[in-house]
Structures are given as C-alpha cells and as structure tokens.
Amino acid sequence: MVLQEKIKKLATDFFPEIVAVRRHLHQNPELSFQEFNTSKYIQEQLTKHNITFTSGYVTTGIIATIKGNNAEKQCTLIRADMDALPIQEENNVAYCSINKNVMHACGHDAHTACALGAAFILNQIKSEIEGTVKIMFQPGEEVLPGGAKLMIEAGVLQNPKVDKAIALHVFPSMESGNVGFKPGMYMASTDELHLTINGKGGHAAMPAEHINPLVVASEIILEVNKKYMLASNTTVPTVVAFGKIEGLGATNVIPPQVRLQGTFRTMDEIWRKQVHKELHELINEICSKYNASADFKIEHGYPFLVNNEQLTSSCENKAKNYLGENYVQELPLRMTAEDFAFITQQVPSCFFRLGTANKAAGITSGVHTPTFDIDEKSLEIGMGLLAYFSIN
Predict the structure, then answer these.
(1) Is 136 in the same domain as 101?
(2) Can you say whether the dihedral through the CA atoms of 300, 301, 303, 304 is positive or negative?
(3) What's the rounded Cα separation, in Å, for the pair 305 and 287?
(4) What tens digit of pLDDT does each residue of 249-272 get?
C-alpha cells in the first residue's frame, strides 16, 4: 500500500477518536495564555499514543516530536493554536461550551484536533518516513504579542532546526471536503491603534470656552479614511480603520477627552513603517489646528503572512492527488491576520484553509460568532493532509 493510502486509512481509523477530542476541547475552552487544562489534556492524548513531547513552552505550549529514518535529515513543523475567544456560545449542541463567555469560535479546537490526528498517523508510519516532524501546540494566537512569536523566542524552530512549517485554518465559507491555497503573499500585518485626544471640556452651550475633542476625533477619522481607504494611490493593500470611539460627555456636556481604538493592516513592511510615521504626523497636524493634543500609541502586531511559493504549490498538488482536483481551490488575498506569520517570516511555510461548512446541515456561521461550528467530517481531511504534507 502506498504511503498516501496508508495515511488516508489511518485518518479514517482515527476519525472517531479525533471527533471526541475536538468535542472535549470545544466544550472546555480557555482564553489566550490560560490554556492550562487544554495543555494537560493534549499531553494526556500524546502520552496515550506513546508520542514523545516536551511541555512548558510559554507556560502552556507543547512540542511533540516524531522521528523517522535519518531523523537529522530534515525537520517539518506542524502548528496548531489552542486558545479560545471571550464569546458566549449560542449553539444547541451536546458539546456546547461549559465555560461562561468563553468559546472556540475561531476553530482552534479543530486545529488542535487535526494536529493530534496527524501526530497519531505519523507515529504509526514513522518507520516509513524520513526526518523529524515537530507538532507545535501553541497558546495565545488571538492576542498580541502572539504565542507563535513567544514560542519562536523559546526555541521552537531549533534543536532540530525546522526546514519547513505547515498549518491549517478552518474556513466556514468553504464547504467541507474542500481546501484552499494561496502561494506567496496571503494575509496582512496587523497593528493596533490607541489614540487619546485631549481637548478642553465644558458646557455645550458655550463653544468659545472649550476645545471639543469629538470634533478633532471626527476630522481625524475622516482624513484617515480619505487618505488610506478611499485613495487610489495606495497600491499596497491597506486598511486603517477606527472601530471604537469613546467620549464620555452628555447632551449638553463636552468631554475633555475622547479615546479611539483602531487597526492598521497592510502587506509591505516598508509601507507599514511609512504609514506609522504618516499617522503620527496627520494626528499632530489636526490636533494643532484645534489647539488640542494627542497621546497616540501604535501597538506593533503580527507581520504579513507569506506562503512559500514552492512549498505551497507542492502541498496544493499533493492535495489534488489526495482529494481530487475539483476539491482544491485558489484563495484570494485576505486583510485578516494570523500569528503563524511570524513562522512564515523565518522558514518556508504553507498556511492553507480547511473547508468546514455544511449548508445542508445549517453549518454556515462565520468565525468569531456565537453560533460558529464545523462539519466534523473536515477533521478527517485536515489530519490526513497535515500528515501527508509533512513528509517528503
């Protein structure tokens, strides 16, 4: 039996167990950098299958290691994130979250389950593969600075040195049974914008006696939108958007301060630095016009995610061979962000999408919503492809 067929059969064999794993994780979600019980559970599963691992990376992170023949020849990293989101689940399912206001609404339970399934498969065929496979279970993908960055700093890409990295992400806009790829630039960098406008509060009926920070904030929002969102000269994909504004005045009270929070996303590091500079200049210029002042902080987030052209094309071809050509789709650029980008900046990587929707069954909700769920048949595909992509 060729190795691909062995992987497919093992994925089918392990499927019921991986569904149970995913449901346990979904029912017991934990927030970023608080994945203590999740980490313990993953370690129990690895121990049960006699898979070597080390724990304690960034407190809850785990690295499982599977050595094939000529273990030093090459090393592949499979990455899965473990953290959940602060969302109250509204699904009526037996495995609904039991933790109030915490939910696996981004599919990290599925990512972890697929990575465990891949580990189980690879452990069964390790005598037939070359090199070493590391499986990385990381905390804190959902919040800055990102668990992937911290695990890199803890040495996850060394000892042995990682030659390539693979990761998947659920894709609720794609039917289960399908996968998607995008060689080259795929996802944006992301920075958080934190701005406080300092004006002078007072009675709304006495405009000569105050400096209205709401007016200043409004002009900043409009100018930023005009310059970066509506302009035709921004050839690099760019998003600068304020999603929160807080001015605690009243119908007849002008507040002394207004606070704004936003996001900046793009796909070019030189342009990214330039926009940082331009935003500071634009905000200071508008504040000066109104005799206001600003406290402006840009929290530097994840870099852009780039899929290695050769590796991603190879994985795409393998997927066509594994699933059939009609089940493999080309993906467009996305302005969303992902901390696996830190890894793609260090080693050749492939980050692909796993279709998880099932329209006939009503499984269509997007990520980060209280009704998000997956068609669990996608887990069999996810674990099989992770295992298949990780071998030469």
Answers:
(1) yes
(2) negative
(3) 35
(4) 999 999 999 999 999 999 999 999
